[in-house]
Design goal:
The complex is a heterodimer.
Chain A lengths: L1 E5 H11 L4 E4 L6 H12 L6 E4 L3 H13 L4 E5 L1 H16 L5 E6 L13 H4 L7 E4 L3 H18 L3 E6 L7 E5 L3 H7 L16 E2 L8 H30 L6 E4 L6 E5 L3 H14 L4 E6 L1 E3 L3 H8 L4 E6 L9 H12 L6 E5 L9 H12 L8 E2 L6
Parallel strand pairs in A: 2-3, 2-4, 4-5, 5-7, 6-7, 11-12, 11-14, 14-15, 15-16
Antiparallel strand pairs in A: 1-8, 6-13, 10-12
Chain B lengths: L2 H6 L15 H13 L3 E5 L3 H5 L12 E3 L5 H14 L6 E7 H6 L2 H9 L5 E6 L36 H6 L5 E5 L4 H13 L4 E6 L3 H4 L6 H10 L6 E4 L3 E4 L8 H5 L10 H29 L1
Parallel strand pairs in B: 1-2, 1-3, 3-4, 4-6, 5-6
Antiparallel strand pairs in B: 5-7, 7-8
Helix pairs in contact in B: 2-8, 4-6
Classes of the chains: A alpha/beta, B alpha/beta.
């Protein structure tokens, strides 16, 4: 059924359709309306889950770790400072190999106080062992939550589905909310390999010596690697049932491109429009949408970009002292592959600043003229 | 089950665990699990117990055990219980088992919140009055006058111990109680009683620690007895935050008899011991008044 709803409501509908047994909530702008709608679903009996209204995001994740370890499918949503407060337990959830699915509504990190979008909150959680997806539209956000459950429960790793604060979380657009029967056909109930079970008692998470810890981390890496292909299979199953497809990497007009923009989330939408406009001007511009950040889809990116074109990365984040995070990762895989593409770096939209087509046009043209060489940062849209 | 029967029960955990010799936590743990029975799931944060259970792949536990982060016992136990209820499993006891650091200090926020939500599990704080697992650092459960490695001689703790049972009782939880392994029948009775109550139940278990308090490993039970007999650690329970009941009324012995067996107090001067005596007497008097008041209210 098509409805005109916000991105936050889209992911809440996805969570309802996934039938989690336990949902834990704690409010934070701009995520709060996800929690509110989950509470409403439970109150109205539209979702038969146990809702825990905890006192902090830290306890959200602790409660979900407990619930997931006891065998439940779980859900929560958070943002920014809340995600940062969870940090310790993000490691714990991944280390315990629990398929927790969480929506993060991207919001910049304080100080100073800010509620608007950039991606440093989730990218700061890069090394916690969570899979991470970024969404361009509310439809994609809804669909990605459903796919995240299926993927997570196959590889026993947690998954974070990110959507841009306000740009997606609070903007209404038409979203197809699938019928429960279709979702049930795609996503069967969770069947954990191990859980807290009085008939089959185990200890989980005990003190582990150097004799065993290393291999546990190796296994997590292997599962992460397998997720790169599994997500395509998952997406293909999803696509057969729902008629929609979302690949980890999407290549748009890249075949003949002399320069390719790489970016994530709602900025992709602005770039699609800008690429069309630049093509009309005769510029051979392409676009690569990076949907999956962890595991990092190296092979898909290398294939989508190819050997020749220049690359300009629009990073809605800043790792101070080094620059944009996505461009670092991209340079890493290009170096490993022996590729010499010039990779330009632009820092965009920090703290929710608008990213305009004019800016994108400018950075593409500057990069074509070798302005802002590969080792420099283009502070695009900054009053600097 | 009376305590003579308990003595002949098969231990509810395997031998070969890693507790220090004389550890009172283990005695309390054994009695608690015997009282609660095997349909119990344990949630244990960073504390002595997490190490006592053994190093992977070994475990002393015979029941499901979830190790969780230091400050998360109450939140994690809430999640475990929610998952069980979501599956329609209503007959399983979830038992949070945390030390004083994890309860009085770092886990306090999650504990208070779970108590306020009246989550349906039993939370036990086994209290050895300092961060013993990291090697004897003061916590807010460390009593006045005690030596620890972070309150060394010359700067021993000059603040009172936080009264955790009163704080929990102020949440109006269905059941709060104190127990001491040196009084095994009382301990067993309270765990059996707690099991039958639904909602949030808090049990404060006094756990003399030979390693941290500096006394012989053969003296844990004696120390527990002296703590109760001197009224340093009264045995009582509070129902719904208002109905107080003192389970045992000791004749009373001077606190010095309890303190002086322990290395952590051996530096105390007579005037400091007098201060401790005064505080203990005052606290006992207040407890009597609370009990009396709650009985009068009932009438």
């Amino acid at each position: 059924m098509k409805k005109v709803i916000t991105g936050n409501h889209a992911v809440a509908h996805a969570a309802r359709l996934a039938k989690p047994g336990v949902v834990a909530v704690y409010p934070i702008t701009p995520q709060t309306s996800v929690s509110e709608l989950m509470a409403e679903f439970v109150a109205k009996g539209q979702l038969k889950a146990r809702l825990i209204r905890v006192e902090s995001e830290h306890s959200v994740m602790a409660a979900l770790i407990g619930a997931s370890m006891a065998g439940a499918r779980t859900f929560t949503a958070t943002s920014s400072q809340g995600l940062a407060l969870m940090h310790e337990l993000l490691h714990w959830a991944a280390g315990a190999r629990l398929p927790i699915v969480m929506v993060n509504v991207n919001r910049s990190m304080g100080s100073p106080w800010t509620i608007w979008c950039d991606h440093l909150d989730s990218l700061s959680q890069r090394d916690t062992g969570w899979m991470q997806f970024y969404c361009e539209s509310s439809q994609e956000a809804l669909d990605t939550v459903l796919q995240a459950y299926k993927l997570s429960e196959q590889v026993n790793l947690p998954c974070m589905v990110n959507l841009d604060g306000f740009y997606l979380s609070h903007t209404v657009e038409p979203v197809d909310i699938p019928e429960q029967a279709l979702v049930d056909a795609f996503l069967p109930p969770r069947k954990p390999l191990y859980k807290l079970d009085i008939d089959d008692p185990h200890s989980f998470g005990a003190l582990t010596s150097p004799e065993h810890y290393y291999e546990l981390r190796y296994k997590a890496q292997k599962e992460m690697e397998s997720a790169k292909e599994l997500i395509k299979q998952t997406n293909s199953e999803f696509s057969q049932i729902m008629g929609r497809s979302w690949l980890p990497v999407e290549a748009i007009q890249t075949k003949d491109a002399e320069i390719i923009i790489v970016t994530m989330a709602t900025t992709v939408g602005t770039c699609r429009w800008t690429v069309k406009k630049l093509r009309q001007q005769g510029l051979k511009v392409g676009l690569v949408k990076l949907k999956m950040f962890r595991p990092f889809p190296a092979e898909d990116l290398l294939e989508a970009i190819g050997e020749g074109p220049r690359v300009v990365v629009l990073d809605r984040n800043l790792s101070a002292g080094m620059g944009g995070i996505i461009q670092q990762e991209l340079k890493n895989i290009f170096y490993s592959a022996g590729r010499r593409n010039q990779i330009f770096s632009a820092i965009v939209g920090l703290g929710g600043r608008d990213i305009t087509p004019e800016q994108i046009e400018l950075v593409v043209k500057q990069s074509l003229k070798d302005m802002y060489a590969a080792d420099q940062i283009n502070w695009l849209g900054g009053k600097i | 089950m009376n305590i003579e029967e308990a003595a002949f029960q098969e231990a509810p955990f395997h031998p070969g665990h890693l507790a220090c010799a004389g550890c009172a936590e283990r005695i309390g743990h054994k009695l608690a699990l015997l009282a609660l029975g095997p349909k119990t799931i344990l949630v244990i944060p960073a504390c002595c117990s997490t190490v006592i259970d053994g190093i992977f792949p070994h475990t002393a536990s015979k029941i499901p055990l979830m190790h969780t982060a230091f400050e998360t016992t109450a939140a994690a136990a809430s999640g475990v219980k929610a998952a069980l209820l979501a599956e329609g499993k209503t007959d399983i006891t979830v038992l949070g088992w945390a030390g004083d650091g994890g309860t009085f200090d770092i886990g306090f926020q999650a504990l208070s919140a779970a108590a306020e939500r009246n989550e349906d599990f039993i939370y036990v704080c086994y209290d050895n009055e300092a961060y013993m697992n990291t090697g004897i650092q003061r916590s807010s459960a460390t009593p006045f006058g005690a030596w620890t490695t972070t309150t060394p001689l010359g700067q021993t703790k000059d603040l009172p111990k936080k009264n955790i049972v009163e704080i929990l009782a102020a949440h109006r939880i269905p059941y709060a109680a104190t127990v001491c392994p040196a009084y095994p029948q009382d301990l067993t009775n309270k765990f059996r009683k707690a099991k039958k109550i639904s909602g949030f139940r808090f049990i404060h278990l006094f756990s003399p620690c030979p390693t941290g308090w500096k006394f012989g490993s053969d003296l844990s039970i004696k120390l527990g007895r002296l703590a109760v007999e001197s009224k340093v650690f009264p045995l009582y329970e509070v129902e719904k935050g208002e109905k107080y009941h003192i389970n045992y009324r000791p004749k009373g012995i001077p606190v010095g008899e309890y303190l002086l067996d322990q290395g952590r107090f051996k530096h105390l001067k007579p005037e400091e011991i007098a201060v401790i005596q005064e505080n203990v007497d005052k606290a006992w008097h207040e407890l009597l008044l609370k009990e009396k008041y709650s009985q009068e209210k009932e009438i």
